[in-house]
Amino acid sequence: MDKGFRLMAAPLQGLTEAHWRCMHFRMFGAEQGDVEYFTPFIRVEKGEARRRDLRDFTSDLNNGINVTPQIIFRDAEEWRLLTDTLIEAGATRIDMNLGCPFPPQVKKGRGAGLLLRKDSLDAIACAMAEYASQVTFSVKMRLGVNDPAEALEVADIINGMPLRHVTVHPRTARQQYKGELLTDELAAFATRVRHPVIYNGEVATPAGIAALTSDFAGVMAGRGLLARPSLFAEFRSGREFTEAERNAAYLDLMREMAPLLEERLCGASQFRDKMKPYWEYAPETLDRRLVKQGRKFGMPD
Ligand SMILES: Cc1cc2nc3c(=O)[nH]c(=O)nc-3n(C[C@H](O)[C@H](O)[C@H](O)COP(=O)(O)O)c2cc1C
Description:
Elements: E1 6-9, H1 18-29, E2 35-42, E3 44-45, E4 48-49, H2 51-58, E5 67-71, H3 76-88, E6 93-98, H4 103-107, H5 118-128, E7 136-144, H6 149-153, H7 155-160, E8 163-172, H8 183-192, E9 197-200, H9 206-210, E10 218-221, H10 223-227, H11 231-237, H12 243-264, H13 267-279, H14 288-297
Parallel strand pairs: 1-2, 1-10, 2-5, 5-6, 6-7, 7-8, 8-9, 9-10
Antiparallel strand pairs: 3-4
Helix pairs in contact: 1-12, 12-13, 13-14
C-alpha cells in the first residue's frame, strides 16, 4: 500500500457521530492510527454554532482520535462564526461543506448551493489567510448543483484557498446520493485543481480503494464503511475478510456501541431511535432476522 494514500471516514449526520467513531477507531483504527474521521456538519442556529453539533466535536469520546470538524455555512459571516467557535473549542483543522444536496440548505446557499455563489466563496477565500496560523482548512464538495461544469467555474477560487485537500463526490446535488458517478467530469476538475484530491463515492470494497491509489491522494468512505467497518483494515492488510468475518465485524461494532449509547441517552425509546438508522446500512449478507430486530428494537436479542 502507498504510505501516502490517505484513508478518511466520511461525515454522515446521525451515523458517524462520536460514539460510532470511537468504536470504529478502537476496533479498526487504533493500531495504525491512520484514519481521519470527519464530524457531520456543524451549523449555525439562532446566531451561534448549534450546541448539539458542537458537542459531537468536543465529546470526550474523541480523545486520541484524529477528528476533523466539518462546518456548513452560507456566507463569510457564518463561516467566521463557526471557524472562531471551533478554534475556541480546540480545532486545528476544519472541513468546509460545499456538497450538501439537501434542498432547504442548497436553496439558502449552503452546502452545494455555495458552488453557485462566487461572491461568498471569494470573500471566504480572502478571509482564510487571517486564520493561517491557527487552523488549516479542507473542502468537501460535489461537482455542482445541476450541472457538473459548475465545479470548473469555481476551480480558480478553490485554487486560491490554502487547503490541505479537496474531497470530491462526483455527482451533482440534483442527483442526491444515487445515480451515475460522473468520473470523466471529476477527472476534468481534478486536473484543474492544484490541491490533493480525495475521492468519495460508493467505495465499498478493498479492491475499490486499490483502484483509486494511482489517481487520487486518498479515499473518503461513507456508507461503504458503515456496512463494512473492516474496509480500511482489509485494504491495509491486503487480506479480504470472508463474508462471515465481515458480518461479525459489523455486529461487533453494533454490540460495542450499544452500551456506550445506552449510558449516554435517556431511556429505551431514545436508544432505539438512535440505533435504528444503522440497520439500514447493515451488510446485505447479514441474517435478515437480526436486521429486522435491529430496525425494530435498536439491537437484536
Ligand atoms: C445520511 C447521510 C448523512 C450525511 N451527512 C453528511 C454531512 O453531515 N456532511 C457531509 O459532508 N456529507 C454528508 N453526507 C454525504 C457523505 O459524507 C458522502 O459524501 C456520501 O454518502 C457519498 O459517499 P459514500 O458513497 O461513500 O457514502 C451524508 C450522507 C448520508 C447518506
